[in-house]
Amino acid sequence: MRRRCLWFCACLSLIACSRAAPSSTPRAAVDVASAKQESNGAAQGEPGARGYLAWGYHKEQLVSRWYSLERGHVVEAGSAPAVMIADGDTVWRIDHQETKLELPSCAVILGTTGPDDSKGEGTLTQVWAQELGGARRHMLVSAERPEGATEYQHSVRMLGSVGTLLFLEESEYDYSCGAHGGTSKGFVAADVKSGFNTDVLTPTERSKIDRAEGVLARRWFLGEGVFPEDDGDGVELVRLVPHYVRGALTVDALFAAPTCYACSDGEWSSYTTTKSIELAVIPARLREGSRLPASLQAELEELDVRGFSRLSKANLDRLSQPQP
Prior knowledge:
The protein is of the alpha+beta class. Helices cover 19% and strands 40% of the residues. The chain is built from seven helices and 14 strands. Strands 4, 5, 6, 7, 8, 9 and 10 form a seven-stranded mixed sheet that branches. Strands 3-2-1-14 form a four-stranded antiparallel sheet. The longest helix has 13 residues, at 32-44. It is globular, with a radius of gyration of 22 Å. The model is unreliable at 1-5, 7-13 and 15-45 (pLDDT under 50).
């Protein structure tokens, strides 16, 4: 079943799952010296940086905002209702398309006769990174037409980004004419520059998380009576979500444990319950974005910031052009 594959691949993608080549505890400490240097750089004008690009959620609506750096001050220059990520002199816009499906009825699927001849329906979602003002385009998420389902919904949610690494969550619901439908989710960490999924955690980091936050998650599940045999087997780290709290990068880890359909919290699948725990240590792959520039923080107080980039002059000029 595809639902099982989504969960299995999500667990592997945190360490080494790839597609065609592509991935609580106290708040993570931030290097004070680095933060001070970042703040001074923002005030004086960082070498090569002419502005900043940030994206996140404002009142549950996704938005990107960009700012020019003028005499040590940031000035909002524009916004767009899409995820945008800058890299060098390139800006990547994350686009998506939803395709409607016409699916067979249960009478057709089961080979029965009767009044049930209405057709089913569904959706497929594609997500890709489009070079702004250029021709490069990298597919990040796609799905195939389901087999044996009369209802099927496939969607994608933007979770966060660090550098050019974008975190996404696939959600899949299907009803195949049984007692009830089922939901499952999958975690994707893709590099927008290449379109490849990539590793987020090293094996050593994965092991340390299992011995720290993983233990906390197991204790929580046991306290909730999730494991009748009190052994904690089956707990998996299935998702990482980077976001900024008071200017500092935090990473929330989602752990899932198997449970009955009626006991599920619906956060990860129809047969799991979950616990989110903030990582004590930021993974090495994500440390480049450990803190927002001090001058930018006040501008983003009302935004649930999920990612930011430094902008070159070429990128500022590119963003000032009308967006398609």
